[in-house]
Prior knowledge:
There is one protein chain. This protein is of the alpha/beta class and 602 residues long. It is built from 17 helices and 27 strands. The strands form five sheets. Strands 3-2-4-1-10-9-11-15 form an eight-stranded antiparallel β-sheet, covered by helices on one side. Helix 3 (103-112) packs across helix 4, helix 7 (256-265) packs parallel to helix 12 and helix 12 runs antiparallel to helix 13 (422-444). The chain is globular, with a radius of gyration of 25 Å. It binds 5-amino-5-deoxy-1-O-phosphono-D-mannitol. The site of 5-amino-5-deoxy-1-O-phosphono-D-mannitol has 15 residues, from helix 8 and helix 15.
Amino acid sequence: MCGIIGYVGNDNAAPKIVKGLSLLEYRGYDSAGIAFLKDGAARIVKTSGRVDSLREKLLKSDKSYCAIGHTRWATHGPVNDVNAHPHKSGNVTLVHNGIIENYIEIKNELQTQGVVFKSSTDTEAASALINKYYNELGSEKDAIKKALFEIKGSYAFAIMFKGKEEIWVAKKESSLIIGYGNDGFYVSSDIIALLPFTDTYYVVNDGEIARISSDSAIVFDTNGEKEIHWQKSEQDEQNIQKDGYDHFMLKEMHEQASAIYNTISVRAKKEMPDFSDELASDFFDGTERIEFVACGSAMHASLAGAGFIEQLAKIPSNAYIASEYRYSVPAFKKNTLTIAVSQSGETADTLGALREAKRIGNKTLAIVNARETAIAKEADACLYTYAGPEIAVATTKGYATQVALIYLIAIYLANKNAQINAHIAQVLTDTLLNSVPKAINETMLRENEMKSIARRIFDLDNLFYIGRGVDYYISMEAALKLKEISYIHAQAYPSAELKHGTISLVEKSTPVVAISTNEQLYSKTESNLLETKSRGAYTILITSNIKTASEADALIFVPYQSAIERFFCSLTLTQMIAYYAAFFRGCDIDKPRNLAKSVTVE
Ligand code: M6R
């Protein structure tokens, strides 16, 4: 949930650290800080607030060739300057991503030995412990190793020692990479922050300790020094610019069509789903049940996906909230495939659920966007989405590609299980590959229409989205998007369930938005919407029923034939409503309050 960057080389470090931190801000933006080596000692500049505030605090004279930086999403201790990273204890200055679970024990013990703590963070316990062992052992590596032996929890550390122009790193369950540039070596939570400087990187593994200096990077695992195999990033720095859009979220909504096309086209051969480049030919053989584990929007994508698989392939499928699953694994029968879905590939709850599924003997598959991340690496197999870097905290293209890829799996399994013939499989695949991106692009042209809906609701406090079946799953995502970026409370409800209690919350002008794209249920969903109108609601009907005679206050048409086009059209409409509602409220759309994009703590 925090972003780490470090640099040691022959160029001025501070501008690089600040640039890197601004690219890592999606990981947390409560506070930011930098420590750089000056005349052998670490000088720290840190502040609550954004990287821009840090930039203002730095002096031109703050020149150094070795520095570490941090952007924080607070877990322990309030958001203030003192709790901002880096933390310094004696000879040790460090930044940390993760949670040190036993920090109170460590802190108590060190306090009895006379150590004085300045902050209320878990991180300072680590810096103090490493400092203690460094003073005792005199070796950076041995001090880190000994401290890590005692530390429980998750971490990625970047550590500087007094008088040494080098950075040490160690990690467990929090991402960390080393970058190899023309002007020195880097460490970072994510390749995105290094793209302005280098595209060559190494992913540090759990349990490894590494040291970077201006002319070398050395990685140690349990067997000693190991050979580094550098990789080249496929990402392009251009992908992390706003390209003239006001917000990354809007840009990413516009990129959904191409992201889906890129995700599906590599797996559509002769218009048939084909996973032979990525999965063993017998990968799905014998699968009797599929369960998804995911969080937030990825969970909503999984719910829709489980529905597609059940309907098309007739394989029993469920989606579980990962944080619930990991501590109460559902009773299962043999031959369950667990699919972990995650844009970032590093969501702690999803990773925990994946590990639990593996522990009980399930076969596992990951659907991940960010390359080489823990979820991607730990599952038995991985299918990457091709959304490209997603910067806005609120996911749009990440979610869209997850749904599209799971839908492709559903077509594949339906054909494999002889639930649909090859011709139908081809038609469905072609619709997903070609018609869906077209439908999304056409829907994005309806910005003015959605702006006027957003203008009608943006100053209200509560809103309901209702729908049945897959429309309910879209409603869940629509409600989350609205809450997340506009802070309007929104709740998704299965249309008919509303009258069993929740309709008591509907009063004069409460907006109720019904999504109705299933022709068999048009009249039922429309009736449920009108039940709320009778109680004073302001009703909005998103429907593919071109012949509707609904008396809803506002009608939004979904003019497509296939269920999957209707899905993505409705989704895109609701994304735009959320975006413009947040826009009219003057919210910080790309960085909503209290959130971070990668949720790497439980
Ligand atoms: O990276 P992941 O897909 O694992 O993230 C899961 C959720 O944290 C994420 O979808 C979150 O709900 C989004 N901010 C919603 O827009």
